Amino acid sequence: MDQWNVAWIDQYMNEAALHGAAAIVTYSLEIGYGSYSDDMINMQDLCAKDVIPCVSISRNHYKELSKAIKEGKNKATLEVDNVMEPDKGTIYNVVGKIKGKSSDQQIIVSGHYAVYFNGFQDDSCAISLILSMAKAMKDSEYTPENDIVFVCHGSKEWGAIGSQFDWTTGAWEMINNAHPDWAGKTIAMLNFELPAVYDGAKQGEIQCDPDFAPLVKEFVENSGILAAPENDIYPDGFNSTSVDTFCLEDGGSYRASGVPHSVNIPGFDKEKDKNWNRDRYHTVADDKDTYNADVMTTNLKTFGTLAIYVDQTPALKLDMTATCDDLGEALNEDLAKAAGADTEAYKAASKELRASVDSLNKKIDDVNSRYEKAVSDGASEDELTAIRSEGKALNKTTLETFKYIQDHFIGIILTSDMVIKHIPYQSNIELISDVTAALEKDVLSNEKEQNGALDLAGQINVRAEFGYYSFSPKTCKASEESLLEDSNKGNLFWGTGKGSKLADTKDATRSLLKKSAAGEKGSYSEEIEIYNKALKAQQKEMTKTMEAETKAMKELADSLKAKI
């Protein structure tokens, strides 16, 4: 099984069940997960309904079984001592708090204690880090302005059945059901993943939501309180340009509910000592051998200081012009016009929104500048409290704006990247156009240039189409049904309201695969017709989505004008 390059476990399982298998026993190919050694057993979430038992073994286990089969030993007994009891299990999110001078607002510091095997880096080190941060704050007798809440999340790795969005469910339940009140009062979440892995980087980096990036930049460049990396572990210091977050950590669940967040850069995909993610992720090799004390200490100091920096700043410095930039960059004007979208209205609304956000930013900067001057001038506590109260009132508007942006502009590509909502349609339109152009040139595949029809078709629907290259339509349909809102309503958690309608191109793609396998060449008119029909449907969906985005931009701009 190759979950790294081909497909997740759900498709292997569903395909096996379709052909009558009572269970499947899988091992990871050396080019996939668990490549650290042939003794590795890799475990993942299922992202599907519980259809048949799935058991993971190592490559060495496979070699033993393969040898036995070749020797004619074709009978074996499999004993699995594991009971699945949906809706009967309970896991807890563990919470501690350092009370601030006021509980009107809070900062969350978090990691997850749900792990596979030892889970040393992922994510036991994070739990150690947040407990160390809490202890350091208590030992130093730091009294925060706002509550600082330390959360150890459960159900991060797997917490649901029958959903492609089955991880980080503990965090989702926390912010949506256990504490929905946190959404309107949490000014920042600092989350941690693998905080003691060294990836060979020359500079330290911080990952955060785009609107949080200007705050990070100010913190790194101008705060004057950021300590140098421990023992020069990052010789070039810290990069003030942050990296966008994605969906593999608990911050995504909070962001969807309107909580701005940042996370350390795990560094697990860098080419240092091979690749931590491919080698050790979710295996017994996630152990203390990879622990780097300098990275751990650097993350502790950096994010502990960032928490204090946010806590001491009265007006939260979120800059939603980052969203305006993303909305502008997301517009492919030629494609949008061809689809029938009103690009002029879209651009005008974006300009109007930017002006309103600029006004909000000026107010934020004014509050913070006056507060900084007041502190410098030795102002009375009453004067400082009055300015902080202004900041709190403004923060309500800032957080409401951030939440509105998440609801109306931010979508998720499959279960991975957060993007402007019309981007998946735009991407499909480009790909389908390129596929039909290749077919019209009679180029089915081009190994060197990778621009043949079949080279491109697998990328449709953000590579969901690639499933049809290896699996049956029924198996692929099962995966899609667990992904989409129409077929899996109420079971998408942090993916709720974030998806898009897939392009219906599978019949054409499967036909091309059959022709390629048979060595057929010639007319592709039927396939082109299917692709063109899907193209028009995607254009329609993109136009509809852009209309909604345009309307939302205007509404948000008007709302900000009324509040500022």
From TrEMBL:
Coiled coil regions in record: 350-377
Pfam name, any one: Peptidase_M28
Keyword Phosphoprotein: no
Keyword terms of this UniProt record: Coiled coil
InterPro entries referenced in this protein's UniProt entry, alphabetically: Peptidase_M28, Peptidase_M28B
Gene3D superfamilies per UniProt: Zn peptidases (3.40.630.10)
Annotated ranges, domain Peptidase M28: 93-301
Keyword Coiled coil annotated: yes
Highest taxon in the source lineage: Bacteria
Protein known as: M28 family peptidase
Organism of this sequence: Hominibacterium faecale
